[in-house]
C-alpha cells in the first residue's frame, strides 16, 4: 500500500510514520525538510502550502491513502483538493476533538455524532470549516474524504498540562522541581482524556486503505479519563516532585489576566472531554489504548531529562504566570478581609 503523509515528523505523525513503516507499508513523507528520519521511509521536499512546489515534488504519483496532518484553514484545504483530486483512494484529514460542542449539552460523553460547535476558538472553527468543505467535496465529486479527530495527544516531547509553554515544554517540569506553583484551571475536577501518540497510531494506521471509511468521522483517544488534578499529580510524580504546589484559578480569572487563554480554555480544556471510542474500535477491531497516562508521562519526563537540548525554560512565560498568581492571591486576600472582617 502506497501511503503519503503530509508532515510526518510531528508529535502524532511521527508515531504514525514509525508504525506504518514497521507494518510494511510503502510510506512517503511530504515536508519542507525532505527528511524522514526513519529507515525505509521516503521523503519529498516541499512546503505543502506552496502549491507549485508541492505539485512539482509530487509529480504524477498516485496514492492508496493520503494523510493530511498540516491543514488548518479552508484556504489550505482548497489547495489539497487541487493537488489530490483523482490521485488517491483515501484522503484522511486530521481535524481536532476541540471541534465538538463547547460546552457540551445533553450528555457528557462525546461520540462522533456530537455537534460541532466552538464559539470560543478560531482554530477549532477553522477545523470545522475544513471538515464541511471535505464533506461537500465527497457529495459533489466523490472525493474520498475521511475525518479523524484527535484529542490531547502527547509523546516524548510534550508535557500535556492545561497550561504550559508549547515551544519549551520543560518549563512546567523545571518550575515544579524548583518548588514553584503551577496553575490548574478551575477546581481541577474536570475530566479529561490524554492519549499517547503510540496508541493513536494503532488506530490511524488501522484505517489506512479501508474504502469503507469514506465519508466517516472518527475520534481516536484513550479510554482513560482523569481529572486535571490527577494529570498534574501524575506529572509531578514522574518528575520526582513529592510535594508539588498547585494553584487553582477560575478560567474566567485567567482569561481576564490573559485574553489569549480564552480559546484553549473555554474552547477546550475547561470542558469535560470523555470519548466513546466504539466507532473506531468497530472499524479497527484490534485497536486498544494500552499506555496509561502514568506510564506515558514517565516516558516523556525520562526522554526530556536525557536530552539537554530539550530542557529549555520559558522565563518570560514563568514571569507572566507569577504575575497572574500574585493577582489571584491579592484578590483572595481582599475577599477574605471583606467577608471575614
Shape: globular
What is the end-to-end distance? 73 Å
Numbering strands along the chain, what is their spatial order in the largest sheet? 3-2-1-4-5-7-11
* Total number of strands: 14
Secondary-structure content class: alpha/beta
DSSP strand (E) fraction? 15-25%
Topology as a string of helices (H) and strands (E) = EHEEHEHEEHEEHEEHEEHEHHEHHH
Q: What low-confidence regions span 5 or more consecutive residues with pLDDT below 50?
A: none
- Tally the helices: what do you get? 12
What about the largest sheet? 7 strands, parallel
In which range does the helix fraction lie? 40-55%
Rg (CA only): 21 Å
Mean pLDDT: 97
Description:
The protein has twelve helices and 14 strands. It is of the alpha/beta class. The strands form four sheets. The protein has a seven-stranded parallel sheet, with helices on both faces. The chain has a three-stranded mixed sheet with strand order 8-10-12. The protein has a two-stranded parallel ribbon with strand order 6-14. Helix 1 (11-22) packs across helix 6 (197-207) and helix 7 (228-238) crosses helix 11. The model has no long low-confidence stretch (mean pLDDT 97).
Which properties best describe this structure?
341 residues, alpha/beta, 7-stranded parallel β-sheet, 3-stranded mixed β-sheet, 12 helices, 41% helix
Summarize the structure.
The protein has 341 residues and is an alpha/beta fold. The chain is 41% helix and 17% strand.
